[in-house]
């Protein structure tokens, strides 16, 4: 506690504003537990940048922690490009303080002689990624905490290719940040270097989204869509993109259309949660819509609900959406003729069905650690290859490479194109998915997330993962574990023969068990939330689509049995 108190007292100097000092003094005198939570560590970059609860302290999002980040980034950019005029583009989402924090970040960069393009109002994360290349910038920053609760905010950094920072830039930037004290931050803005942007970049982004996501689907006039932005940024882009692509029957959930960082109509603005789309699904049932689309606050994740075999609206998971989107794109490439350099990509905790499809179509399959920055890095590392599309189980997808992060704007259009085309051909999005299971194997996944907040929660998560490793799973529902993949040691070990293979990916706190029948169980801590996550994947053959219901029930029963075995 002495070191925490000592750190907190450094925030009582004249460099910090009076409100900050007043709050810290109050915590020192009256609430040592809260003081500890705010100062026991520095916020760190995770799988999706830096996210945290807003407030004063080193373990909080505020003008000083983000100012220090930005000062370090500015120093690194100046050292990396000593002879160039450095340019950075900045966007922000709907969250509380996002606009003021974006302005602070802009001011710090300008104070360091860096040209800043600042969006005049909130914009989507995919548009920020697009804008980096469109404006020939050296970096981009978006102020967002994605789908985290209202008390959170965050900070994501993008590099010259429009992708998030990855090795070696991430480590080097973090080292630069860690070498600074808060007093090194230059807050004295040069307003001549801050330029507001909006419509010109919007226009280019909309055009690119329609170009990449539209495939001349038939009979769009008879395809009904219900869309909700869940109080987030996608309201600035998705309705316009759908309109330009020819969709006229789009019903917007007006109660959720106004950007609002309190997210007043949902418990969580996360399209992975069925509750978040409840209002939209209800409207879809009322008006007989074909599809529901909902996006998270910064519009990089999308949730899709479509009519199932009984005609009821059903929310699909991220793996299901990813599989059908990828198959559709593969079919389009196949129609035009593969050139032999194409690839699709996903992450190590997403469905293995992606690899089966790649084999079937004869294209390369690449897998990455969790986090879309790693898929963006693939595109950068293999410029001779063509990225068709790819995604991750957590409701993120990217169409082509004009955006280098998950993109709910273009992916929404792609999903609508698939569904509208299927309906026009007498099928449906849901039926097409079942047909894919017949062709490539029926893969079914389930995610279990356990929230553990604060210092004690972080320790609990750490211990759970240690236990998962030190008490290895030997069999799952009667199927022997064959491979144990430990990404902390970059080693895959055959549990039956003792054979070991190197894993050619950066080290990460992930452990995966794979059984002889192809069942996979993965465990990892979240890089953006105080959660530990367990991913279950199982599979079987589906001989014909008419067997879907009975085989689906078999897999559901198997997953329930796995969860029971693991006490989850």
From TrEMBL:
Domain of life: Bacteria
Cofactor: Mg(2+)
Keywords, in A-Z order: Isomerase, Magnesium, Metal-binding, Phosphoprotein
Domain Alpha-D-phosphohexomutase alpha/beta/alpha span(s) in chain numbering: 44-182, 210-305, 317-437
One GO process term, biological-process aspect: carbohydrate metabolic process
Single annotated GO MF: magnesium ion binding
Family label: Belongs to the phosphohexose mutase family.
Protein name, per record: Phosphoglucomutase
Organism: Flagellimonas eckloniae
């Amino acid at each position: 506690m002495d070191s925490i108190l000592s750190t907190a007292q450094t925030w009582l100097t004249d460099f910090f504003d009076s409100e900050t000092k007043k709050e810290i003094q109050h915590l020192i005198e009256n609430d040592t537990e809260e003081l500890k939570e705010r100062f026991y560590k520095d916020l760190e970059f995770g799988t999706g940048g830096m996210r945290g609860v807003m407030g004063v302290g080193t373990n909080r999002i505020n003008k000083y922690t983000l100012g220090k980040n930005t000062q370090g980034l500015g120093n690194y950019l100046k050292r990396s490009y000593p002879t160039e005029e450095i340019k950075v583009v900045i966007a922000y989402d709907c969250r509380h303080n996002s606009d003021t924090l974006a302005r602070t970040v802009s001011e710090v960069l300008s104070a360091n002689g860096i040209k800043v393009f600042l969006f005049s109002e909130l914009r989507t994360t995919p548009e920020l990624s697009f804008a980096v290349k469109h404006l020939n910038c050296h970096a981009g920053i978006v102020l967002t905490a994605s789908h985290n609760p209202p008390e959170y905010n965050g900070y994501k950094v993008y590099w010259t290719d429009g992708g998030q920072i990855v090795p070696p830039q991430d480590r080097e930037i973090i080292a630069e940040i860690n070498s600074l004290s808060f007093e090194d931050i230059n807050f004295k803005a040069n307003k001549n270097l801050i330029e507001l942007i909006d419509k010109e970049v919007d226009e280019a982004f909309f055009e690119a989204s329609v170009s990449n996501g539209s495939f001349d689907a038939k009979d769009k006039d008879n395809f009904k869509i219900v869309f909700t932005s869940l109080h987030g940024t996608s309201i600035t882009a998705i309705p316009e993109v759908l309109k330009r692509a020819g969709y006229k029957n789009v019903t917007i959930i007006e109660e959720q259309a106004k950007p609002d960082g309190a997210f007043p109509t949902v418990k969580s603005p996360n399209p992975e949660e069925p509750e978040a789309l409840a209002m939209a699904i209800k409207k879809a049932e009322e008006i007989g819509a074909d599809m529901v689309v909902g996006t998270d606050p910064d519009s990089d994740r999308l949730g899709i609900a479509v009519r199932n075999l009984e005609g009821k609206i059903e929310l699909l998971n991220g793996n299901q959406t990813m599989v059908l989107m990828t198959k559709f794109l593969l079919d389009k490439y196949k129609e035009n003729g593969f050139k032999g350099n194409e690839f699709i990509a996903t992450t190590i905790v997403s469905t293995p069905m992606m690899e089966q499809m790649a084999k079937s179509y004869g294209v390369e399959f690449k897998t990455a650690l969790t986090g879309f920055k790693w898929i963006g890095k693939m595109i950068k590392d293999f410029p001779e290859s063509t990225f068709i599309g790819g995604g991750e189980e957590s409701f993120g997808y990217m169409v082509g490479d004009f955006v280098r992060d998950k993109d709910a704007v273009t992916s929404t259009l792609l999903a609508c194109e698939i569904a509208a085309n299927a309906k026009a051909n007498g099928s449906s999005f849901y039926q097409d998915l079942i047909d894919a299971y017949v062709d490539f194997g029926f893969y079914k996944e389930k995610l279990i997330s356990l929230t553990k907040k604060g210092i004690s929660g972080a320790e609990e998560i750490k211990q759970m993962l240690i236990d998962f490793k030190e008490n290895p799973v030997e069999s799952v529902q009667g199927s022997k574990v064959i491979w144990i993949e430990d990404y902390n040691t970059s080693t895959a070990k055959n549990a039956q023969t003792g054979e070991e293979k190197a894993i050619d990916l950066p080290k990460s706190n992930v452990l995966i068990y794979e059984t002889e029948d192809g069942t996979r169980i993965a465990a990892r801590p979240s890089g953006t939330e105080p959660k530990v996550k367990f991913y279950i994947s199982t599979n079987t053959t589906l001989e014909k689509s008419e067997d879907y219901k009975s085989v689906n029930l078999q897999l559901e029963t198997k997953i329930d049995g796995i969860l029971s075995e693991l006490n989850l």
